[in-house]
Amino acid sequence: MWPLSSLRTRPVARPDFPLTFPEFARRFPDDEACWHYLVQSRWPEGVFCADGNPAWLNAKRKLFECKEGHQWSVTSGTVMHRSKVALHIWFWAAHLVTTQVPGMSAKQFARQLGLRYETAYMLLQKLRAGMVNPERGKLRGMVEMDEAFVSGGREAEGAKDVKAVVLAAVEKIGKRAGRVRLRVAPSNRTQDIVRFLRAYVEEGTVVKTDGNVAYKRIEDFGYHHVVEEMDVDYRLPHIHRVFSNLKTWLQGTHHGVSHKHLQAYLNEYAFRFNRRKTPMAAFQTVLGLGTQVEGPTYEGIYQGTWVHPNPKY
């Protein structure tokens, strides 16, 4: 590990990923170890400002500076920016989120990390913000698409259960599923289906659906449409499994999710699904180290006004 005084523009090797709990605990025992890991991960070629000027470390304030007077911290541009939560807590939180197969509720999170519920909830929501890369590629080749109606959970208590429309598409790669995309939509009408496809699926892709008439016009927008009207559970297995597991997860782990926060949970589900083979490698991604996405504010979360800055939808 380097002394702080040596951290100027020095290039270093990008760090690898801890593969076990004991290894993780040894690698990140305190904030200092986490700080060095962030520097190595974000700037393996050396630290420079946005204008390309070499940077040096203000050891007293633990900020990087350049000759133009720009200053930034190791967490600038990430979901951890301006957080008062210790770095090692962020690291453990990211580790739990990316390695626990069924996910975690905020209450479980609070107990595991010794946090107040409100703090744990904010951490989870900020980490979910780091799960979506605005520049991610579109699905391609062949995809299965469908829609589902998801219960409002707590919103429905003592009132009529108004269900949210969720659109989904999953790549079909041979006999296995590839990447998935999920989105809360105003409706399951053609206009919203086409908007979803244009945001998340490349033109020219083969789109397999059931016999819903709302899909009939998607060929007008550059997609090859295949209708599976008979035995759709067999012929569209991946998309039906996605929705089945999604609903089980929302009800089992989280006991229902309000509609205004549902998209954040869909983002987490898609993140887990797409990285199900490499959960440890997802650790860096969830901290927002490569996406330049800052997390939502407390007000934005609780009012349901924060929307992930995804220009493609």
How would you explain this protein's 3D organization?
With 313 residues, the chain is α/β, with parallel strands linked by helices. The protein has two domains: 126 residues, no CATH class; 135 residues, Nucleotidyltransferase, domain 5, CATH 3.30.420. It is 35% helix and 15% strand. It contains eleven helices and eight strands. It has a five-stranded mixed β-sheet, with helices on both faces. It has a three-stranded antiparallel β-sheet with strand order 1-2-3, with no helix packed on it. The longest helix is centred in the C-terminal third of the chain and has 16 residues. The chain starts with 20 loop residues before the first helix and ends in a 10-residue tail after the last helix.
CATH topology of the largest domain: Nucleotidyltransferase, domain 5
Architecture (CATH level 2) name of the largest domain: 2-Layer Sandwich
**What is the element string, with H for helices and E for strands?**
HHEEEHHHEEEHEEHHHHH
Kindly report how far apart the N and C termini lie: 42 Å
Per DSSP, the total helix count is 11
Number of strands: 8
Secondary structure class reads: alpha/beta
* Helix proportion range: 25-40%
- Low-confidence sequence ranges: 1-6
Which secondary structure elements does this structure contain, and how are they paired or packed?
Blueprint: H1 21-27, H2 31-42, E1 55-58, E2 63-66, E3 71-72, H3 87-99, H4 106-113, H5 117-129, E4 142-150, E5 164-173, E6 176-185, H6 190-200, E7 206-209, E8 224-227, H7 232-235, H8 237-252, H9 262-274, H10 282-286, H11 298-303
Parallel strand pairs: 4-7, 7-8
Antiparallel strand pairs: 1-2, 2-3, 4-5, 5-6
